[in-house]
Amino acid sequence: MPFTSYSGPASNFPPKHTWKHFEEIFNINKPEMLQTGDSANDVGRIWNAVNEAAKKHGVEERIIFCIIMQESTGNVGVGTTTNQDHHGTAGLMQCMESLGFPGQHNLTQPQITSMVMAGTEHYKGNLKQEGDKDTADCIYKALRLYNSGSINEGNLSDGKGATNSYVSDIANRLQGKTR
């Protein structure tokens, strides 16, 4: 199913009751993760890391996982990139606070967990900035902050120099759609 383009305020994005369950989203995306060169063990360790980070930071598993898919397609060996402020971002969640393992696969559980913990902690800071509520409205705004560091509440597809479609893409992923 193709991605739908969402824009405008958070109220224009899909409500939580349209989101798939974590296990379903994860299973839909397994083939895409395996195509990156990830081993079955890497994929299993991503599952473990997402669950551990969700429990530790109080962030929904499906949000963490959809950020992973958006940022790295679940590729544990994803390269380090530079954001619009010229800061290096690394790891599964392409986070400034994360270590990366470019080109490597068959990583250990601690290596994968460290990447997911760093990204989840960064996202949680954005969620706190938006009221730390488990509502679609707060989540979508926190996603915009995660990607661009700033927010136009009237249009979450205004990337302010970052990826305009970021929040829309994750909204689609939460509904079980893939690229």
TrEMBL record:
InterPro entries reported in the protein's UniProt record: Lysozyme-like_dom_sf (IPR023346), Transglycosylase_SLT_dom_1 (IPR008258)
SUPFAM superfamilies: Lysozyme-like
Descriptive protein name: Transglycosylase SLT domain-containing protein
Transglycosylase SLT domain: residues covered: 49-154
Domain of life: Eukaryota
Pfam family, one: SLT
